[in-house]
Amino acid sequence: MEFVSELWTIIQYFILGLVQGVTEPIPISSSGHLIIFRELFGIEASGLSFEIFVNFASLLAVFIIYWNDIIRLIKNGIIYLIKQDPEAKSDFQFIIYLIVATIPVGIIGLLFGDAIGEALSGTNVVGVTLLITAAAVWMIRNLRGRKNDRDLTLKDALIVGLTQAVAVTPGISRSGSTIVASMLVGMRQETALRFSFLLYIPVSLGTTIIEVPKLVSSPEFQSMLIPNIIAFITAFIATYFALKWFMNIMAKGNLKYFSYYCVVVGLLVIFFL
């Protein structure tokens, strides 16, 4: 009987890792889906520690996919600082825009992140915020912007950063909110996607550095070491393939289906959970 219980726990955490990995890159809210599945499984949440842990797995997958962009930005950023090379200026500016866009969510996350996560982590709230995500994604379903990396402005970065701060609320998709804002200010799909996920890196890295060491040293984590590791590995693999898939979706402009999905899930959650 104990073996069956342990096996079921492992299956639950595998599913949670899969849910995190699949939903993190696409505009349907990973935090909202984790709340839904934890409710279905009857797993009590203790703050945001588990979410941050599996989010770190997603971060590693994003690092791998955008590794060449990251290295290029760092290299050209340093070159511009040292030599003022005009060829490196656009990448240096792109870094500045990422920093500017990170500030709003950094402030709100540090001051109110835990309070917002705990106060608004009910399934009814998630149902409503999924409907909000659906409406936002629907707005940009047919947009085709023209702005490339070189065309971005500080105003664009600030607008995208403010929308990312809104995504601290469970059920509001981080990738969805930043992609929506990026396309509303006129970015091309490819530029919007790259800006969104490069913006994801400093935010996720900051919370990881702060929270993960505390989590892995806690007795609760140690007692659930194997299920947590399984969730982590699953989230990493699922994020990698989900993001690759979403890149193709963005290129084809089929975002309306994510809007449909969020409407259906949001209504199901409101009426049945």
UniProtKB/TrEMBL annotation:
Keywords of the record: Antibiotic resistance, Cell membrane, Cell shape, Cell wall biogenesis/degradation, Hydrolase, Membrane, Peptidoglycan synthesis, Transmembrane, Transmembrane helix
Superkingdom of this protein's organism: Bacteria
Catalytic activity reported: di-trans,octa-cis-undecaprenyl diphosphate + H2O = di-trans,octa-cis-undecaprenyl phosphate + phosphate + H(+)
Record has Transit peptide as a keyword: no
Cellular localisation: Cell membrane
Cellular component, GO annotation: plasma membrane
EC number(s) from the headed UniProt entry: 3.6.1.27
Bilayer topology: Multi-pass membrane protein
Listed transmembrane segments: 52-74, 94-113, 119-140, 192-212, 224-243, 255-272
Annotated InterPro entries: UppP
Cited PANTHER family: UNDECAPRENYL-DIPHOSPHATASE
Protein's job: Catalyzes the dephosphorylation of undecaprenyl diphosphate (UPP). Confers resistance to bacitracin.
Name of the featured protein: Undecaprenyl-diphosphatase
